[in-house]
Each structure stands twice: as structure tokens, then as C-alpha cells.
Amino acid sequence: MSLAFTVEATCGAARTGRVTTARGTFATPCFMPVGTRGAVRTLSSADLEALGAEVVLGNTYHLMLRPGADVVAAFGGLHGFADWHGHVLTDSGGYQIFSLGPKVDDEGATFVSTYDGSTHHLSPERAVEVQVALGSDIQMVLDVCPPLPSPPDVVRSAVERTALWAERARKAFLAHGRDDLNQFGIVQGGVDLDLRAESARRTVAVGFEGYAVGGLSVGEERSQTMPALEAAVAELPADRPRYFMGLGDPLGIVDAVARGVDMFDCVLPTRLARHGTLLTSEGRINLRNARFATDPRPLDPACGCPVCARWSRGYLRHLLTTAEPTAPRLLTLHNVAWTFALVERIRAAIAAGTLDELRAEVAAVWGRDGAGRAPDGPGPGDGG
User: Per the residue annotation, which of 137, 262, 265, 300 is the catalytic one?
Assistant: First the structure.
């Protein structure tokens, strides 16, 4: 395997470590900002470097349609295209495709482009081909991600087809002979604990450089999420990185790490920022609230990011309410930096053996549902 994973410290099931690939290394636990179309919305590669990002997510579905995998490949893959020297992880595009109501059979998914209405077919092999062209350091297999709740037969079918596609994807990936690239398998199974464990065992049997838990945080109750995660993680090898797909709320991150997760991604920090909602040590604040108009304080007095070091809530609210394009960029910089700082605190707490204390602190602010809504009222929904 071209990917190595070293555990450096543990606290219960939680661990800190380092993932090493042909490109270099990155620390875990690791939060990966989502750069859907080859860029994290409103930020540049230079911004991400300054923030200390080590891994950025790319979206196979969008990039294969615009500008096309062949165009990206001509620039030397996503790294050359975006002039990004860190790691790139690409999803298979399955989540986006299945949200479009595609025609699905054992061969793959046929869907209509949201850009121009053209029809496309994505098979497990084609998903590998596209991601190899994108040059992603870590690529995900094509899987079936059912919405939750779903009938038991739908979840069972997703597990079966995901296992079938995993075998085909692995064969196609190995045929490329690219020792510099890595492939992760995906565990499905909804909130059925037995199906989660079965899917994990079947995925591990195929043999990948790392393993992801998919199909959670897609509509189920939080009380159902963590037991399903535990059932999957119990079957995953300890010497391989574990990735919770689509998780980004602060309490969820702490709880997942406490159960042995090493990597996670989510659009939450960037999407909230573009709508004026900020992550702070006090919870979420909605900067559009009138009470911030004359507030001279930084977004979060406890935050050490460049935005908090320089500009006031009042000024940033002015930029936001006047639709100044600078606003979403600055607010995104803060939210991503704040999330990175939380992950740094988690790493330190694991090393010190104090993760339980940090979890209690985060839970006191962010609540059981992870919403963390400050007294000024709810921010826009995560899907905004």
C-alpha cells in the first residue's frame, strides 16, 4: 500500500496520528474543507495554505461535467489546475447523483446534468477513471447512499450494490497501477446496526487503503447516528484511517473522534459563512442581527484567526448587509479557521487524556443537536 497510517496518541477509542502518502503527510484528526468545483467557495489556494489546510475535498460529479476530467488532467490534475500543493480527496459523485433521482442498476447510475440537461452514465469503473484523471491522492469508490429514513429493503439493496461496486472499483483502480494514488472503500447500512457491521466487514474484505462511513448525517436522528457509526468502526482495521463523510458540526466532530474517526468533511462552515452565520466559542451567531451593527468586538474574542484579529462585528455586518463580495470571503476564512482550531484542541485533548472534558465543554455550547444557536435566534439551515 502506498498509504501509511501511524497512531501517535490515544484517549479511549480516540486517536491522533499521521497519514503518509506519496505526496507527503497530514495530521489526524483532520477536517477537510469542501472544494466542490476545484475551489473552496470564496477562497483561493493561497488562503487555504495560510489557514493551514492539509487536505481539500473535490467533487467528481461536478468536475467531470465542468470543466471535464480531461481538461483538469491537461493541467496536471487538480493540484496543477488549482495550484494546490496539499492533499486532495475526491468523492465519487454518488451522493450528488443519487440526490437527482437517477436510473440505477447493477451497472451504475444514469443521470441528467444539472448544467445543461445532458445524460451521463457513471459506473464504478468510470468513477475510478475520472478520479485518476483528476489526480486525487485519495479517491472514493462509487457507492449507493440511500436517504434516511428509508425502508429496510432499500437499505439492504444499497448495502448489496455498494459491496458489488466496491469489488469492481478496486479491480479498476489496481489496473491503473498508480502507486501514488489511494482508494477508500465506503460502508453503508443506514441506521441498522447489523447491516452497518456487515457492510463494514464486506468492505474490509475487498481491501482498501482506508475506509469511510457514508450514509449518515443525511436526515436521521442524532441518537441514531453514533450507534450506527460505532457498529461500523468496530469492524474497521485499526491500522487504516477512518473517514466520516459529511460531518462538520462541532459536537458531532468531537463525538465521532471519540469513537475512533480520523477524517471528516462538511460544507457547514463555508455554507453558513456565506449566509452570515458564524461559528464562535459562544455558539452560532447570525451577523445579520441588528444588534451587531455597532458592535466593536471581533466575531469571536477567543479566536486567533486573521479576521478576528483585525475587523469588528459591526464592520463585517455592514459588508454582509450591503452585499459586498468581501463579506463571504472574510466570514468563510473565520469559520474554516475556527473549525481547524477546534480540531487542534481535539488533538491536544487526546494527547493530554482530557477529551471527555473538552466534549463536555463543547456540548455545553452546541447542545445535543449540535446546533449551537446563540440567543439572537437561529441561523439559516445547513442546506442554504
Answer: 265
